[in-house]
Structures are given as C-alpha cells and as structure tokens.
Write a structure and sequence with these properties.
- By secondary structure, the protein is an alpha+beta fold.
- It has two domains: 227 residues, 2-Layer Sandwich (Ribosomal Protein S5, domain 2), CATH 3.30.230.10; 140 residues, GHMP kinase, C-terminal domain (Alpha-Beta Plaits, 2-Layer Sandwich).
- The chain is 43% helix and 21% strand.
- Strands 1, 2, 3, 4, 5, 6, 7 and 12 form an eight-stranded mixed sheet that branches. Strands 9-10-8-11 form a four-stranded antiparallel sheet.
- The longest helix is centred in the last third of the chain and has 28 residues.
- The structure holds adenosine-5'-diphosphate, (3R)-3-hydroxy-3-methyl-5-(phosphonooxy)pentanoic acid and magnesium ion.
- Magnesium ion binds next to helix 4.
- One of its GO terms (cellular component) is cytosol.
- It is found in: Cytoplasm.
- InterPro entries: GHMP_kinase_C_dom, GHMP_kinase_C_sf, GHMP_kinase_N_dom, GHMP_knse_ATP-bd_CS, Mev_gal_kin, Ribosomal_Su5_D2-typ_SF, Ribsml_uS5_D2-typ_fold_subgr.
Length: 386
C-alpha cells in the first residue's frame, strides 16, 4: 500500500447552520442541520526536525508556534496505549497537563487529537485556514476537529476500512463511510474538550455534509431529498460568546426547572419533526407558498423559545429579528446563540433590490450578512504532490 509518509495531505471540512433544535438536541431532542459552503482547510506537511509546527492564522495573537515532539512525550499522562481505531474521551489528567502546557482551549483539543493519533511519532507542519467566522454559531469548532482528525488519519494511513480504494485515493474526495464514522467519532471527542457536553450534531454535519436530522440517541440521518430550495441569509452579530457557557446554562436551567423547560424542549422537538413533514410535503407537491408559511412560523417559534425560555438570546439578535421583520422576513439564531450568527428566511422571489435594502438596513446597524449556500459535501481529503 502506498504510504503517505512523505506526502502533504490537504483536508477541508464545512461549517453548518442549525435550522431547528439547537440546545434542545443536547437535551436528547431532534435537530436539523445543513452544511455550509464556508469551509476550514488544513494542510499536513511532514518535516524532518522532530517538531510540530502549528499555524493558526484565525486565532488572534497565536500565529505560528513550534514544539519538539519530545516536549509532549515526556508529559506524565501522554497517551501511549490508545487504539486509533477506537475513539475515546481525553483523559482528564492529560487534559490538565495540556492546560498547563498552553492555556488556549482550542489548542488542548488539537494537541489531544495530535498526540493520541500520532503518538508524536510523525513530525509535521500543520496549517489551518478558515472561511468561517470563529465562535459565531456556524460550527467552526467542529470543522476544526473534523479537519484535524481526517488529516491525521490519512497522513498516518489509519483506515477503519483497512485501506479501501476510496480512502487511499490521492485525488480530492470523501473517505468511505467506515472512515467517515471514525473521523466523526474522534471529532466528537475533540468537541467534548471544546464544549463539555456537545450533542454531536456539529461534527456529524461537518463530517457527512448535506442536510441531516440528529438525535443524541440515534445519531444522524441524512435527509434523503435534501433541503428544499430555501433562500437563507446569514447575519453575523459579531458578538462573541462561549458555546460551552451557553450550553451549560441551558442544561442547568433544564435541571433546575424541569416542569417548565421540558415542555419547551418537547415543543422544539415537535418543530424539528414538523419541519421534516413540511419538507416531505414540498417534495411531493412543490407547494412553495405552504413551505414558506410553515417555515416562517417555525422560525419565529423556535427563536422565541430559544430566547425567552432557554435564555440564549441577545439584544443584537433581537435587533436583527426586528429589522428583518419590518421588511417581512423571519429570523432565528443558529448555533449556541448569545450573539454569533442568525439565519433569515428570504422569499423565493425576493429581488436583488429587496435583498440589498435588507442588507443595507443591517449594515446601518453594524451587521454584515450574506446569502448562504447549504448542502455542501462533508469532509474532503486529498494528497498534494510534494
Ligand atoms: N480555524 C480555527 N483555528 C483555530 N481554532 C479554531 C478554528 N476554528 C475554531 N477554532 C476553535 O473553536 C473555538 C470556537 O468554537 P465554538 O465556541 O463552538 O464556536 P463555533 O460556533 O464557531 O463552533 C475557537 O475559540 C477555537 O478554539
Ligand atoms: C448549542 C448546540 O446545539 C450547537 C452549538 O453550535 P456552535 O458551536 O455554536 O456552532 C450545542 C451542541 O449541539 O453541541
Ligand atoms: Mg462549536
């Protein structure tokens, strides 16, 4: 089998929007997500210096850092006995050692995955570049984790399938389903360091792409006919926030007030399931007006439940909801909320002038927006000839 020992590997993984069910999905309910055309790209280039070079241009003040691989191997809880084909959570003692090593949350995630999958036996220059806004609800953390896992497994020729033609290909393409499942499960372990208690929807949609329904119990299910041709505008509030903190807040509220919050979560679950029904109806009758009416209502309902009941709204989100509503559009937050990004349902016949009027009103309030393309392929892997 051709080894990738001396090859440069390139990976790209998409971000996502959650149409319905964010946070509720952490509480075992149904959510619907779709991949975005905005992606994180990672290159893995072998070096002969026994060093790890990490280039993170999207993280302010990080730039490029280098370490000797021996620096990691001498950590007391360095993972030597983990089978890369059997994903497991980061050992808490190792996580603490990584925190002491460098106190940047995302770097712990990277170093956990790098040390666990490579055992620090492969010196590499690893460079990231993302088209996604970081920390804005579009799944940048998941695309970060999926990119790391897919690239390292390929660079080390670790294949859940044993190395099928599809996975050994050098041209850009998706790994086989067995390998995608391995990438997805390792990425979830990375997300656990990021978020604490991720549902797994973000890494699933970044791995498999397209559009999917998700529950923690049953995992993902690709929406076979895909999402109807909805037009979605993404607006970034540019308000930074912590997904981990927001997720913890909803979990604590649901534990403290179960009789109040459980019905809310059940209603969001109903909204997600009704969305699938509405999609199926559209694929049958192509009645776009009925689709639009139902989606507009569900957007409003989910937004108000997230903001008023889960407490993950923000004044900047309320401002965008109000601006878009004044022009006849419906908006909800996507991802963890508390700032970050929101999604607005355009009409099928929204003209360029109407769209520009909407965008200008948002710009006047300090927000940038762009029309999303959803349903992109999941993680893509290729070998760059040296
Ligand atoms: N391209 C990247 N380079 C470095 N770190 C990244 C990148 N993308 C995401 N991250 C990590 O993920 C964190 C954001 O994750 P999160 O709070 O879940 O927001 P999001 O909604 O974007 O997933 C960042 O603080 C950083 O640690
Ligand atoms: C809030 C949540 O449902 C989605 C988090 O999305 P993001 O990390 O803000 O892009 C958490 C989860 O499902 O893990
Ligand atoms: Mg995230």
């Amino acid at each position: 089998m051709i080894s990738n020992d001396n090859n440069t590997i390139q990976v790209s993984a998409p971000g996502k929007i959650i149409l319905f069910g964010e946070h509720a999905v952490v509480l075992e309910k149904t959510a619907i997500a779709a991949s975005l055309s905005l992606r994180t790209t990672v290159t893995f280039t072998p070096n002969d210096k026994n060093r790890l070079l990490l280039d993170l241009p999207d993280i302010p003040d990080f730039g490029i850092k280098e370490w000797s691989l021996d620096d990691f191997k001498k950590l007391g809880h360095f993972p030597t006995d983990i089978d890369p084909l059997k994903p497991i959570e980061c050992n808490q003692d190792f996580a603490k050692e990584l925190t002491n090593f460098i106190d940047i949350k995302g770097i712990h995630t990277f170093l956990f995955l790098f040390c666990t999958l490579t055992k620090c036996n492969k010196a590499m220059d690893i460079r990231f570049s993302s088209a996604l806004p970081i920390g804005a609800g579009l799944g940048s953390s998941a695309s970060f984790c999926v990119g790391i896992c897919a690239g390292l497994l390929k660079a080390l020729d670790i294949y859940a399938c044993g190395g099928c033609e599809q996975c050994k290909s050098t041209s850009e393409g998706q790994p086989c389903n067995q390998q995608l499942n391995l990438i997805n499960q390792w990425s979830l372990q990375g997300e656990k360091i990021m978020h604490g208690t991720p549902s797994g929807i973000d890494n699933a949609v970044s791995t498999f792409g397209k559009a999917l329904t998700f529950t923690r119990k049953n995992g993902y299910s690709v929406i076979e006919n895909g999402i109807p041709p909805l037009r979605i505008l993404i607006t970034n509030t540019k308000v930074s926030r912590s997904t981990k903190t927001l997720v913890e807040g909803v979990i604590n509220r649901s534990k403290q007030f179960p009789t109040l919050i459980d019905p809310v979560s059940n209603l969001i679950d109903t909204i997600s399931k009704q969305c699938i029904t509405v999609f199926d109806q559209y694929h049958q009758d192509k009645d776009y007006d009925r689709l639009q009416t139902a989606m507009d209502l569900m957007f409003d309902m989910n937004q108000h439940l997230l903001s008023g009941c889960y407490g993950v709204g923000h004044s900047s989100i309320d401002t965008i909801v109000s601006i878009t509503k004044s022009l006849g559009f419906h908006t909800k937050l996507t991802g963890a909320g508390g700032g970050g990004c929101v999604i607005t349902l355009l009409k099928r016949d929204t003209t360029d002038d109407q769209l520009n009027q909407l965008k200008n009103k948002l710009v006047e309030s300090g927000f940038e927006s762009w029309e999303a393309t959803v349903g992109d392929p999941g993680v893509l892997v290729s070998v760059i000839p040296n």
